[in-house]
Amino acid sequence: MNPLSQERLRKRDRFLDQAVREMWKYDERLQGIDVEVRFDRGVAHLTGEVESAAQLATARALVGRLDGVLAVWDRVRVAGRDPVVLDLGCGAQKQYPGNFGVDLYPTPKVDVLADVSRALPFADGSVDRVFLVHILEHLIDFLPLVDEVHRILRPDGVAFVLSPWWQYVNAVADPTHVRMLDVQTIKGICRRPGSKRPWYPLHASCDGASIFAELQPLSDEAEFPDETELARFFD
C-alpha cells in the first residue's frame, strides 16, 4: 500500500464534501441535526451543536460509512454543554481550540502537566473525547495509557488514535518511535485477553502512511460487536 498523494486527498475531500451535503439534504435521519462537516485529507471534522448524544452518534456513524473517510473527529456541544476534550501529549499543537492540552513538558498549548505513561490526573468518567495523536508509537508499553483513557472517558466518549503505519518509512525514520502499529493492532487493543476494559471500534483505517481509529469504551465484553461489524475494518 502506497501513501495517498496530496492531490488525490484534496480531490477526495471535495467529493466527500459534496456527498455529505447531499446526505444531509436527503437522509431523514439527519434532519434537524445542526452539525458542520469539514474534510481535511480524508478526516471528517464535525463541529456545531446537537440536542442529544444520540444525534451526534447518528451523524458520526453515517459520515463514517462514506467510502474514503479515514476518520471522524468531533468537537460538538451536546444539550448546551461544551465537551471536555483532552489532547494527550499535545506538545505545541492542539487538534481543536478549547481542548485541554496535556503534556510532560510546558508549552503555550499545555494546560495540564502530566506524564501520560503514568496514571492520568482525571476522575473516572469525566471526559468526553481524548486525542491520542502521534503518541502511542513513543511508548514502550502503551496499554496502561489505553486503559487510563478507558477509565476517564464517559460511556459515550470516544478516543481518537493517529499513529504511523508500521510499513511507512516515517514509522522507522524517527528514532523516538519504539512501537509500530497496524490496523490489526487496533483490533487487539479492543479485545485484549485478560483485560477488563474492552473497546468498541467505531472506525479504523489506514491511508498507506498512518493508522486512524476511533474507539468507544465498553463496560461489558458482551457488548463487543460481532464478526460482521468487525469485518468493516479488520481481517
UniProtKB/TrEMBL annotation:
Taxonomic source organism: Amycolatopsis sacchari
Alphabetized UniProt keyword annotations: Methyltransferase, Transferase
Family annotation (CDD domains): AdoMet_MTases
Name this protein carries in UniProt: Methyltransferase domain-containing protein
GO molecular function: S-adenosylmethionine-dependent methyltransferase activity
Limits of the BON domain: 12-80
InterPro entries: BON_dom, Methyltransf_11, SAM-dependent_MTases_sf
Record bears the keyword Hydrolase: no
GO process annotations (BP): methylation
